Structure formats: C-alpha cells, structure tokens
Amino acid sequence: MHRFLLGRLVQSAVLLVIVSVIGYVILGLIPGGPLSQFGLDPGLTAADIERLKEQMGLNQPLWLRYLDWAWRLLHGDWGVSLRDGTPVLTVIARHLVATLLLMGSSTVIAIAAGTWIGIRSATHRYSAFDYAATIGAMVALSIPTFWFGLVGIYVFSLKLGWLPAGNMYTIGDASVLDYLHHLILPSLVLSLVHIAVWSRYMRTAMLGVINQDFVKTARAKGVAERRILMKHVVGNALLPMITLAGVQLPSILTGALVTETVFTWPGMGRLFYDSLGYSDYPVVMGILMFSAIVVILGNLIADMVVAIVDPRIRLA
Amino acid sequence: MTDHDDTTHLLSRRAALRLGIAGGIAGLGLPHLLGKPALAQGAAATAAAREAAKKAPAGRVVVGITQEPTVLNPLMLKIEVDDGVHFSLFDALFRIGPDGVITPNLAAAVPTQKNGGISQDGLNWRVRLRDGVRWHDGKPFTAEDVKYTLELITKPNFRAWRTAGHSLLRDITVVSPTEIAWRMEKPFAPYLSFLTETFIVPKHVLETAADPNTADFNKAPVGTGAFKWGKRTAGDNLELVANRDYHGEGPYIETLVFKYIPDLTVFYTQFKSGDIDLTGQVYITPDNYKEAKTLPNKVVTLVPRQTIEGIHFNLEKPQFKDLAVRQALYAAIDRAAIIDALYYGVPSATESYMPRSSFYFNDKLPVQTFDVKAARRLLDEAGWKPGRDGIRAKDGVRLSFNNTTTSGDHLREQVQQFLKQSWADIGVEMNIANLPAAVLWGDVWAKSQFDTVISGVVFMVASDPDVTNRFHSRAIGAKGGRGSNTTQYSNPEVDALLDKGTATFDPEERRKIYTRVQELVRHDLPFMPLYQVTAVLGHKKSVQGFVPNSNTRTESWNAAGWSRAG
C-alpha cells in the first residue's frame, strides 16, 4: 500500500508538471493578451504599451515566465489576478464556496435519486417504471442543460413566480432560507443529467450482480429477498459506483459553466471562463492546477476506497 | 462586449458654446450658485430630485451590467463598466451633462479664455476649487489632492489608463488650498473634456502606499463622490452606500448595487423578472426591444450612443488603395435593410463618425444611396474587370478580402452574410474570418493586421470633437505612430486641420474645422458608416431621476440623483 501510494504520488507530480507546461504554453500562444482587454487609450504610444507590459510582467519570453511562475508556485505563491490584483488563491476560494453549494447539493440529489431509480429499474426490469426511467434518462442526456435551465426559469420564475430567476441570494436579504430558495432551481436542473448517468450505471451494475451465482445461492438458502437485495446485490453493485464518484468528484469543485451562467451563479466554471476571456494568466493557471490536483486526488482516493471496500483488489 | 474599442465617449453638443457662457458666469464670482453638480439635467429628474431631497437616502437600486467591474482605482487601466462605479465613488474637476454643457464639480468654476481661467495663448490654466468638500474618511479635499492626482497619472511606473493630455502639464502649482495652476507645453483645447473623466484621488491615502499600483486603496477606494465603498462579492456584485456628507445634491438612495450578469439572454430575463432595476452597459439587445416595451412597470427608452458601427478598411491593402473600390462597395450596401431587418429599426443611419447630437456634427454630408448599377459602373470605369471566376481583378490584384468581427455576435454575423451576398453581386469576394474579441482587439486591430473589420467605435476622446487619434497620419500604430488610426488613413489636409483644431479654443472656429474634417473623411471612406448605435435602456418605473447621458460612458453618471418611489 505504501509503495503504491509513493508510486502514485511520483506519477502525479510528473503529470502536474506536464499539465502546467501544456497549459502555460497554450495560454501563451493565444494572441491578444491581457492588455487587449482593457479599453486602451488610443493615444498610447508603442513605448507606453511596452511599459505597461513590463509592469504586468508580460514582456519576457514565455519559457522564462513559465519558470518564474512555476518557481513561485513551488513556494506557495499562486500569483495575483491581472484584472484586480487579488491573490489567485483568494479568488479561487471565493468562487469555490458558491460552486460547492451548487454542485454539492446537486450531486447529493443525483446520487440519491439516481441510485434509487437504478435499483428500482433493475429489480423491476421491463416494467413501466423501467421504461419511463430509460426514456427519462435519454431525454435528460440528450437535451442540453441550458435548455432545462431556461425552461425552468420561464415556468417557475417568470410564469408561476415561485422561484428566483437566478443569483445566489437576494441582494439585501441573504438569509439561509434565501440561499436555499435560490438553490432549488439550479441544483435540480444540474442534477437532471447526473441522475440520468447515475441511474443508468446503477441499473447496469445491479443487473451484472443480480444474476451471479452467489445471489442464486443466497436465494436457494432461503435468505429473505429484501436482505439479498440490500446486502448482496446493492452492496456489490455500488463498488464500481465508487470509482464513478471519484471520477465525478472534480466537477463538484470545478463547477458547471453553463448552469452557472444561466443562473448567474458566481462559481468556478464562470470564473474560469471569465478569466480566459480576459487572458488573466495567473487565475487561469491557478484553476487549471487546482483542477488537475483535484482530478488526480479524486482518482487516488477512489482507488484506495475500492481497495478497502473490496478485499479482492490488492494494490501493489 | 459590443464596443471593445471604446476608448472614451463623449461629445459635446452645443457644449463648447455654452461652456463659455457657464464658465463666464461662474467666473463672475457666483461659484456657489453654480456650485451644485448639474446632476438632474432633465425636468423630470429635477422634480424627482427636489422631492427626494426632503428625505434621507432610502432604498436600493440594482444596476445590471454584463462585465465585472474590478478596477476600482479610477486612474488605472480599466474597462468600460468600471466607469459606473467610478462616477459614483469619485468626482472629477468638471462634469458634462446630457446637453454637452461642462459644469464645475470639484472645481468652483469652469476656466475659459474669457474668464481668465485659461490664458489667451491657451498655455496657462488656473482652476479654483470648491471649498468644504471632504473625503469619505472625513479628511478635507484640497488642491494638493488635485496636484497629486495629475502627477500620479504620468509617473513612469504607474499603470495609468490615459496619459494623453496630462503628459503636456508642466509646473503644477498649488496656489492655495482651493486654487491650482499649471502650464501646458502646447495649447490643447480637448484637455477640459479630458478632465471631466479624470477622477481626483486622495493624496493622504495613496501617498503612504509603497506602490500605487497595488495599494489597498485599489480594493477599498476612498473618494469624494455621492456613494462610499461598501463591499464586493467577487464574480457577483458590488455594493456602494450613500455618502450622507456629499457636497452636492443627493444621494437619495441608501445602496447602489452593480450586479454582474454575463449572458445577454439571462440579463434580459432578470430585467423581466425584476431582479435588476436598471439595465447598464450593453443594455437590452435590439431584437428584444419590441417585447421589452410591453413589460408592465418598466420604462424602456431608446438612447443614442456615441458609438458608430462601421466597416473599417485597411487602406494599405492593395485592393483598397483605389477610392473607386471603396465607393463601389459602399454603394452596393442596402443599409436600410440592415438597419430595419437585422437591427429591428433601432439604430439610425449616419454618414459621419461623429454622433449626430454633437454641436460639431456635420449634417450636410452626401447621403449614401443603395445602387448596384452605379457600383458596377464605378468598378468598370476604374478598370476592375471580372475574371474567369466572376471576381474582378486589376493589375494582378483580385477584388477579394477577409472580413472580421467578434465571433459570437449573432447580429454582426448576419450583417456579414448579407454583405457577402451583396458584394458578390458586383463581382467582389468577401470571406468571413471572425476572431474572438480577446484576439481581435489585440494586435490584429491595433497593428492593422486585417483586411476589413466590422466594429463599433467611439471616435472621440472625452467630450471633444478632436479625432487626431483616429485619423491623423501620425496616429498609425502599424507604422509606429501614437494612436488608433487602424485603417492607416492619411490625408495631409485632414492632418493640418486636426493640428489646428486642438490648438483652437473658440467653439465656432472649431466647428468650421471639424465640419470640414467630416467632409473629407466622408469622401475618402477609410471606413463605411453603417449606423449610429442606439441603446435600448430599461428601468423599473419605481426608479426615478434616471437621466441618459450619451456624453459619458455610463448610465450611472448621475446615480446621486436617483431615488426610489414607494
């Protein structure tokens, strides 16, 4: 286990370096640059612009800028946003809270509903419920989230007036209830697609287990059907789902651009998009590295949890 | 962002003329009568303001904007939406109203040659300041602050937004706490207008910072404006609170919130649902205008902006060196169809780069007529013969070029499709090659690395008719010049007129100069004007005192005069 961990950590470090180099180079190749985002005074001379670039640290060759950035990162300095001078980690932390609230709640809904639908579909194969779940999942997967978002806003906000049309809280209110009220629509819309994925996986995993010999044996031994289902089938079917959860974990932290945009939710997805639009290199790289670390950690944790839960797997 | 290259707006309608009068009166020693900033320029606004003046600030107004304001130091590199915040937190020496009249703000009077504030040669300026103004932290505002501000802008290490004009200042002298004087290296008439956009910052706060570029002030600014700094929720909104000790009229609302909604569809939805009280920069898209007008409890108005949407030629490309080609392309555009069918009749056609509300606007320019036959004839006569593929050519140059605009702007993309078809009709090939805004407004635009570009441009800097930066041959960035003459336009007569214009202070004299400049530009067609942008502005009926002002870049220029009914 220790050797496995050490190996994975070395692998992860190499991977992070590769990700950072690719990210930095691609960003550096995008023409325009941060200066072009500002409404530059038409009276500025080329010399003025060079001076501004120097002040913003943009006039050095790309590789030198990368080395400088990487060196600082190793020392815990993630840099400051070119837009407003806020430290990158502070910028990320501010948006992370909003994203965690939205993605966290929608993931909880998705896992709960998806698991239940998956189990019921598998145990009631070819029933009306199963067909409805299949069609529902197909619809949820094939229609883009923003459409559900806009329809949701149209029906529940503009027509019925039950739910807010977006934003994380009412300006001037911001009570817990107010946050929850604003959370309902976006988290439901966002969870739709995850419910679909989760329920499909769960159904397949259940079916894979349900016909196996040990289940038949248990049934032959006269174990109660409910106990068979809960202990033998669901327990085993959940194993691959842990891996799936591990893979999905990063998205909980990196946000959902489309949903955040439709509901004006100040999360990580929108931060990334905005920062790209402004060529705010330090923030873009910060989010990139943060996501890479989360992805690598997510996979590592999933592997370890599976190993602990399923003794057949030995990590070496 | 629609208008990337908006460096500044403004324009003064009868401005300069009245300016002289206003300044003259003020100079007669009645500064305290004119002392209040001219916030409520409209009749309705004045009435509302008067009524609201009786009570303490109350209520909240949420302004929706599509980009996030992040630069809170008003002198630093910034984007257009930052202006809304700056106008509320800070004051400039002067202020320009919707009618183009420049009035005193932190200054006690507008200096002119007539009242002696500006010397006859235009070189020596003397500005008297309002007495009794305090910064948000309670410290008194003095001439030292003005001196510090003007000097900070041109400091080599300071990341200034604009140095033009300011760099001409010499010997800035504090005459008394309420009077400041300086000498200019050469006469520069537009400077008064520049000062309407130069917000004064507190010396006592910024002076102590090690580096003004990264000072704490930039995150929690201290100004003299009608609103004080509240808080910023990154990625979401920014909140200002009423400054009860404001030296001018207002404020009448307790909180002013700038709410950031990047997506235009969502932006409009939130206006409909009532989440935002007033639509800020980029406004409501023209295709939603018809519906917006019918919304209950909302007021939707059309407000002309200074932005001129047009097709810009790179005149160094061989295809465009021939005037006949530009004239033919212009004649082959069905401009009325573009305005009516694609833009729902919201904007208005124009022949000038100058907004029609300007005192300097030339309304006698020849009007373009859609005439395909004339276009073909022009090209035939100039020797552009159709080749085997139907595309015209002359001396080995094919009449084929790229057209670029910001990708994702669906209305502009429709205009491109339309132009492509129209020009194919006269044997011209146009290819669409769009770029993301972040790329286009970099070197591609600034260094003229394009064939043609569709863009909305504000040609003037501050409220002045001077367009040296756009049309003077010294201003061609691609040739190492200082300015944004991206079409690489060069006309010696225009150059001479522009030089004369910046050194002339008399409005009537200047009118003659800039009328002629417009004639020449209309004739030479370095760009083809499509229309003058009209913004669709919406606000709740309960928000009162709102006055559109196309001489500033922001709708919240007079937030101090807003009030909430009920």
UniProtKB/TrEMBL annotation, chain A:
Its main location: membrane. InterPro entries: BPD_transp_1_N, MetI-like, MetI-like_sf. It comes from the Bacteria. GO terms for biological process: transmembrane transport. GO terms for cellular component: plasma membrane. Signal peptide: none annotated. Keywords: Cell membrane, Membrane, Transmembrane, Transmembrane helix, Transport. It is a multi-pass membrane protein. Gene3D superfamilies: MetI-like. Residues 96-306 form the ABC transmembrane type-1 domain. The chain crosses the membrane at residues 12-30, 96-119, 131-156, 176-197, 237-263, 283-309. The keyword Membrane applies. Pfam families: BPD_transp_1, BPD_transp_1_N. It is found in: Cell membrane. Belongs to the binding-protein-dependent transport system permease family. This is Diguanylate cyclase. It comes from Methylobacterium terrae. The lineage of its organism: Bacteria, Pseudomonadati, Pseudomonadota, Alphaproteobacteria, Hyphomicrobiales.
UniProtKB/TrEMBL annotation, chain B:
Pfam families: SBP_bac_5. GO terms for biological process: peptide transport. One of its GO terms (cellular component) is ATP-binding cassette (ABC) transporter complex. It comes from the Bacteria. Coiled coil: none annotated. The keyword Signal applies. It is found in: Periplasm. Keywords: Signal. Residues 103-472 form the Solute-binding protein family domain. One of its GO terms (molecular function) is peptide transmembrane transporter activity. Gene3D superfamilies: Dipeptide-binding Protein, Domain 1, Dipeptide-binding Protein, Domain 3, Periplasmic binding protein-like II. Belongs to the bacterial solute-binding protein 5 family. This is ABC transporter substrate-binding protein. It comes from Methylobacterium terrae.
